[in-house]
Amino acid sequence: MDSTELRDQVRVMLAAGLRQRQVALRLGISQPTVSAYKRDLVDAGRLPTQGKPTSDGPVELGEPPALRASRPRAEILLEAATIKASMLRTVTRTLLEQVVRADEWVTDPGFPGAVRSAAADDVGEAVDHLAEIAAALKLRPVVGAVVGQEAPDGEPSGRQGTAGLGRLAGGHR
Questions:
Q1: Which one in 2, 37, 105, 143 has a CA-CA gap of 20 to 30 Å to 24?
Q2: Are 155 and 120 in contact (CB under 8 A)?
């Protein structure tokens, strides 16, 4: 991962309300590096100076109330969508690279089943939400994507009702 991508991941995680220490641990970098990136991002205007998760809900983008009131709601929602989509890309890539593509997936016969037991419901719910988002964004499914293909352990992958959602054509990076 290059420094631009790393800096973007730091920005997304900080904007989502994670503490610098949590970002450092998740990305495997030092806390002073996160702090330096944060300072640079704030100075460049790419990161709000505030931003705290609420106790019972999603992260509020931390802008002073006067600035928030002067911006159209659609602009604020678009910024939130950009941050959340980038964060989603980062989290799914991390799950894929650090779990599904882990050596243990092949070397430990019980590992895929353990991951399935631990994560299947959450991943399935996320896929359902992604299907709804994809439909709202009018993204076309790519033929032969994830559902119906075999997972690395030989088991069928995916959930019913999500055929073709694995990769979406149009608007993806």
A1: 105
A2: no
List Cβ neighbours of 64 (8 Å cut-off, separation of 6 or more).
50
Structural contact between residues 77 and 60, judged by C-beta atoms closer than 8 angstroms: no
HSE, side-chain direction, 13 A CA sphere, residue 98: 9
Of 87, 115, 109, nearest to 8 by C-alpha is 87
- pLDDT value at residue 167: 42
Contacts for 26 with CB less than 8 Å, ≥ 6 apart: 13, 18, 94
Report which secondary-structure segment, H or E, holds 91: helix 73-95
pLDDT digits (tens, 9 = 90+) for 16-38: 888 898 888 888 889 999 999 99
Asked if residues 61 and 76 have their Cβ atoms less than 8 Å apart, the reply is yes
Judge whether 83 and 15 are in contact, CB under 8 Å.
yes
User: If DSSP states are collapsed to H, E and C, what string results for 125-167?
Assistant: HHHHHHHHHHHHCCCEECCCCCCCCECCCCCECCCCCCCCCCC
Distance of CA 101 to the CA centre of its chain: 17
What is the token pair recorded at 8? 């973007």
